[in-house]
Amino acid sequence: MKKLINSPDQAVTELLEGLALVQPGLALLEDRTIAVRADRVVTDDNRSSVPVAVISGGGAGHEPAHAGYVADGMLTAAISGEVFASPSVDAVLDGIRAVTGDAGCLLIVKSYTGDRLNFGLAAQMARAEGLDVEMVVVADDVALSDEDDNAGRRGLAGTVLVHKTAGAVAARGGTLAEVTDAARRVAGSVGTMGVGLTPCIVPANGKPGFELAEDEMELGLGIHGEPGVSRERMRPADDVAAEMIDRIVGDRELSAGDRVVLLVGDCGGTSAMEINIMARAAHRRLSDSGIIVERVWQGPVMTSLEMAGASVSVLGVDDELLGLLDAPTASLAWPGSPGAEAPQLRRVPVPPTVQDHRADAGTHDEAMAGVLQRVCERLLEVEDELTALDREVGDGDLGQALSRGARAWLASPVEGDAATQLRGLSACARRDIGGTSGPLYAAGLWAAAEALGEGADWPSAFHAGAEALMELGGARPGDRTMVDALQPAAEASASGLDAALSAAETGARETADVAARRGRSSYLGDRAKGHPDPGAVAVVRWLEAIRG
């Protein structure tokens, strides 16, 4: 097990202590894993004046849920158990006592057996003490049916929307009945479905809860590291999101014209890139169904430790409910913001390209066009080779980057004389390749084009391009970069293409024997030895294409 913890026994206590340091207004009950609003602790002096308390909780491991939502406008307290384990009856009762005054409290409980039992009994005991306590159970999991022979639908990420709604009503001075009604309305309407790409490891156990092959996913899983309802082959994000949305829409009987909010949750170990792609896909599926998406929120709202995966929650709304969801909160974990608007994918025109008017395009050079086509086709052929080399010593994107530029040129080649075509290829490099290679190739090609336009021969133009590239990048022969192949090739080009190619091959081969001083390979030091520089190999490959 590889986790940044001290001891599994102290992990929950220490995570709450860390949270209390960064969440303003958060306090911890002494010797308890209970987080409360410091300004809402009940005393004999304020018992009659404190507003309705909104309390939730459950097992740890779902951060920021639940303690991350203890703040003005959301929860008053959160009772935490051990990882994926319900807190005890006594712990829940302590939390109720700490923040519940004469106005009463609402318990928001996820539909897991342990949570229902412990929170339910604590509620009964609190009522016996004279406290006014209501409880709402959230069962937003659409992967399970109420008729299935199981423990019932589970409470998932949609619970956070219940927190937000109930907290907003409480914050504006609502009665316990009003807070409870708002929570029940959301709990009964929200639908959630999850997909897992990797298991998670409970610290006390130290082993994954299940195993998944590289091409498998768990669809319809809960939040406690358990397997999903079905194991399926990986599919594109659009397909996965569409299936999840369709299940929710069908289960919650949504139809064209309905207004909804969309919450896309990170299960804990998913990149922001993937979550945003899933948000896009889910929004598109809803919109294509004629459903009006009023808000889209995304982020780690209710996680399962380090599990990679996503949840999708959809809630039907009207103006009143939307106002509650948009109401301000001091919670740093809530992904929404006051004054939000309905999502729109806005696009603005690209500024017009400034044309180079210094020289006429001239007569189209068919021979040059043929050379550039061969070069681009060759770069597509060696994409996998360059990618594999770059994974050994860099970030693995070189093959992809050069292929992007090659495809862009092949899709729309520039016509004109040799200089004009090189200027066009330079523009393609700076626009489509990106990364480090894009500006370097763009500078070299532009300088070569300028030299040709001024009447230089090809060897001189090649040399001018190499010099411009070195000036921009700062690399010199011996630094273990593309320059180790490019500069010798430029020097040898006066003797013909065969000589240039041979010099490039020698330069590229020798890069395997030196430590890099420039580029990403320099981070590896001597560990990069034994592998030729990918950029230098790329020079060899396009020179091979030029020679034909």
Explain what this protein looks like in three dimensions.
Helix 11 (398-411) packs across helix 12. By secondary structure, this protein is of the alpha/beta class. It has a six-stranded mixed β-sheet with strand order 1-2-4-3-5-6, with helices on both faces. The chain has a six-stranded mixed β-sheet with strand order 9-8-7-12-10-11, with helices on one face. The chain has two domains: 8-196 and 229-326, Dihydroxyacetone kinase, domain 1 (Rossmann fold), CATH 3.40.50.10440; 366-547, DhaL domain (Serine Threonine Protein Phosphatase 5, Tetratricopeptide repeat). It has helices at 11-22, 89-99, 113-128, 159-171, 176-189, 237-251, 272-288, 319-326, 366-381, 383-393, 398-411, 418-433, 437-453, 458-473, 483-492, 497-510, 534-547, and strands at residues 26-28, 34-37, 53-60, 77-83, 105-110, 133-138, 191-196, 216-219, 230-233, 259-266, 292-299, 309-316. The longest helix is centred in the middle third of the chain and has 17 residues, at 272-288. The chain contains 17 helices and twelve strands.
